[in-house]
Amino acid sequence: MTLEGGPRVVVVGGGISGLSAAFEVRRQRPDAEVVVLEREERPGGTATSDAVDGFLVDRGPNGFLTNVPDAYQLSLDLGLENELLPASEAAQKRFLFFRGRLVPVPTGAGALLRSPLLSPVGKARMALEPFLPAADPGREETVHGFASRRLGREFADVMVAPMVAGVSAGDARRSSLQALFPRMHRLEAEHGGLVRGMLAQQRVRRAARARGETPLRAAGGPSGPGGRLTSFRRGGAGRLTQALAETLGAAVHTGVSVERIERGAEGRLRVVLAEPLTPRTLEADAVILATPAYAAAELLREVAPAATAPLEAIPYAGIRVVALGYPRASVPATLDGFGFLVPPGQGLRILGSLWTSTLFPPQAPEGTVLLRSLAGGVQDPGFLDLSEEEAVAVVRDDLRVSLGITARPTMVHVVGWRRGIPQYVLGHRQRVEEAAGAVATVPGLALTGNAYRGIGLNDCVRDARSVGREVAGRLESA
Ligand code: FAD
Q: What is the pTM (predicted TM-score) of this model?
């Protein structure tokens, strides 16, 4: 790690955020020396996948959506176009475990009116949405509060609460609408309501088509509004971080933990590595922190102390991924869909179960099925304390009740993320602003990662590349 003439940029954290930031800095400034420091022995953070007994098991995310361009474009930039694996058509179908059985999630207004998920009163309340006045867009609100206000309490409890748990392992009653679902917030702020907003978006898309503009979907690219879940033929979702790390090559240093950032000589920054590494420090012209917020808080204690409190105040939820493989013949359910989520109070402990072998058939050997169940989250932190055997027993019991599976799995793979997903609770944007403001007072320092401006892979890639561009733009010429 010696200075080689060009400016040096150190990225701390080698998850999708850090790797994307490093990739972008290098693209913008090929003359810069980019160094990624990752504490674990393999890069990728939560976006990694394991090959187990012929199954491909995603440890965290199972893919990205193509309704926005970010992760898709990064895949193209990395030359992975031919490796992209869109989820099968069956994935359009999603279920909720409701009153003891799986009920399809309605996709249109007509299906919603016929669905057993809402009572007649609940449906009538929901139908009022287009006629309700918009709230003050400046007032922050929880996701549950917003959904209750616009669509009724029942809709919020049955349809929205499990979605929040599925996306962030969080609690809809504490999560900030503006931070977690900014696009939903904008529909009301800009168009006066959800239905009005969606109709306006449809008009925009129709007008674009009339002008002869080809939506990217036609070119095999991003489609909207929900987009298509997409993974990779080889290596699952983890292929994205693996390809980034391969492209960055020797710039990525694993098994290197950073202890703190200090001000260095001549306006540079000094990255202090944890013992017992030699050398212990690294001078840099810019440092991008792409660790979880609590880790960034520690690193910044000395150089940007005002960032510490807001970063420490970002809570995290633990989550466990229990992947079970079965011979197809031993599973009575057809598994014709994406999987199911469980609304609170429906008697199961898992948050949901994804039918991976239906979504991405190459990820399970011929004649088998692969189910990935998620459990824990802010509502059930105790799940992270269970032994692996206990966790598997809970999941098997829930799969017996929901899918009628009594057979023993032939493949078991359990991954636990103790502080797995940041929670965008009320006040989140304010905290992020405060932290970013404190970081901005230190020339050369920048912050990115899933704790700030979006949790999904797309959000992480977008933010990291934009931070990478900014940092590269501020570097002095060599
Ligand atoms: P991380 O992946 O957490 O990376 C941060 C890295 O920093 C880690 O590798 C860590 O070891 C390193 N680090 C920390 N401290 C130090 C230090 N002091 N020195 C050096 N290195 C350090 N998103 C989707 O879009 N689709 C999904 O289907 C989806 N499913 C998910 C399922 C689960 C179970 C989880 C946990 C997340 C899921 N997500 C999903 C969210 C998405 O995967 C994450 O938000 C994203 O991968 C986070 O990337 P990151 O780089 O910001 O953070």
A: 0.95
